Amino acid sequence: MSNLPPLSLTTFPRLLKHHAEVRGDRPAMREKDLGIWQTWTWRDVLAEVRPLACGLAALGVKRGDRVALIGANRPRIYFSIAAAQCLGAIPVGLYQDAVAAEILYMFQNAEIRHAIVEDQEQVDKMLEIKREAPHIAHIIYDDPRGLKHYTQSELMSFEKLQELGRDYDAKHPGFLDAEIEKGTAEEPAAMFTTSGTTGNPKGVVHTHSALIDRARVACALENLTDREEILAYLPPAWIGQNIFSYAQALTAGFCVNCPEAAGTVTADMREIGPTFYFAPPAVLERLLTSVTIRMEDAGSVKRGMYKYFMDVANKVGGRLLDGKPVGLGERLLYWLGDLTVYGPLRNALGMSRVRVAYTAGEAIGPDLFRFYRSLGINLKQLYGSTETAVYVCVQPNGQVRADTVGPPVEGVEIKVAGNGELLIKSPGLLKEYFRNPGATAEVLTNDGWYHTGDAGFLDAEGHLRIIDRAKDVGKMAGGGMFAPKYIENKLKFFPFIKEAVAFGDRRERVCAFVNIDMEAVGNWAERRGMPYGGYVDLASNPAVYDLIRECVEKVNADLAQEEKLADSQIARFLILHKELDADDGELTRTSKVRRGFIGEKFGVLVDAMYSGKSEQFIETQVKFEDGRTGQVSATLRIADAKTFAPVKRAA
Prior knowledge:
CATH superfamily of the largest domain: ANL, N-terminal domain
Shape: globular
Number of strands: 27
Strand order of the largest sheet: 4-3-5-6-7
Low-confidence stretches: none
CATH architecture of the largest domain: 3-Layer(aba) Sandwich
Helix content: 25-40%
Distance between the termini: 48 Å
Strand content: 15-25%
């Protein structure tokens, strides 16, 4: 812990001032703009934050007020978080792709009067919701493009706010430093929104103490220093991105890099060469899919070399990474593979310098997990949630397994309730759900235990295994366990399946909806000379149904090996005619399936699968990116899948 700041620095503004003094000339943030990386040192960051905080004070922002932040990863979003915290205000990150109605709820619930947004798109949302939230007083925007003729009095540019702040600072010398000194560890530092899987999102309030404690524990665990580089490419409203790119950056003093755009992330990663990296399984799957497609399109010599050395990597790479014994011959082969395949592949993925990589959010397929570790990338699983400030369990080096999320980290206690639900005690727990004491009381016990809602258990080595959401774990009509998320994740381990929804609680058999991965299946079809006109056409192709059936039956074979889940093999499935979408209410903004909503919306399809039909017509309303709505209709084929007799375990 010696490389970390003193424990007396109990708030983020104090940490910022510390880094500006101790490592003022070290890079703190970079942003790629028009192809050129712009750099801010720690001293520069403090110089940006100071007038911004004073400008907010001039607008009337005070301790305890909520300030909304909506935009992609940009330095000014992070400056704004710090500026609000300097005043004791509470930054509230909201997802930039959320529609106006979703944003409105949080503005009303949290009585947010001030918003700092990225561009015209977000300004338009603010002006739309202001009709129902007239208390919104100020909307500060970063990017002025398209706003030249906007004359609303509540609009103000970022530059104008900082100019206002400089005047305020000059007229009130010592004001900001005094406000920073008033801050305490137990004051709210930020508010994050839950995913809203079953209803309106809740505002999760975290203190400076909770966020800094978890950041310090993680930095110590992985020996993170001020020399790390991280690429901030996930939504800044998500607590994980905030922990990695704000809390940990302000704890260890390392540099955060903001990519130019979503489409340039991989190229920007190659240029930056991050040493600390996070990616949910879906991102890792997409990267592997792109690699697989490139290899399938390559010449026979290159394909053969790739296959040979990846076989070597699968046998040797993980053992080398874990420090386990490896023979000289295998070491030499791996070295040669590193020279010709693994090294260039890590470079193509932008992971040449990654020292620590995490994945979380969903279960990761064993093959996918093994692929990255076999390349020499130290990918590990972690477990946590918005309410726990992310860090609950992490796989330590040398103890990395595909079937667990590791043991509890420092300060965390875990126990299992009678119904299988995991309860957690940690310094990183939420302070409360904002203005929702009932919901807070439901998850926090009087003696400090948090109800996670997840079902799982600690194995003999003290590693945590997650089964499913406790409320989603049901029973088949015959009494066997039904764990839908577990089944869905197994399906999503296949590159051809992007999303899945399983049904079966209190039923005789399990049925499932499948979304195909357009890129992977499209490439598969093209290599076989199969023409198609789009997603609907591809999804209805009989050959694609055969492809997906193979995946389903492999999952069934796996489930047959698991005593508790052998009865929940998938008997029937269909490929949906549209991709599940957050704008259509089928996914949360963090891409979690809203299973109950989907079951109701596509009830006619669920009924058709269980009534034995071989096809079903459906017409569905969809929302397009430009806000228009339309109808998509199709007659969907319903297919049967082979199930397997449960494998009897020897006594």
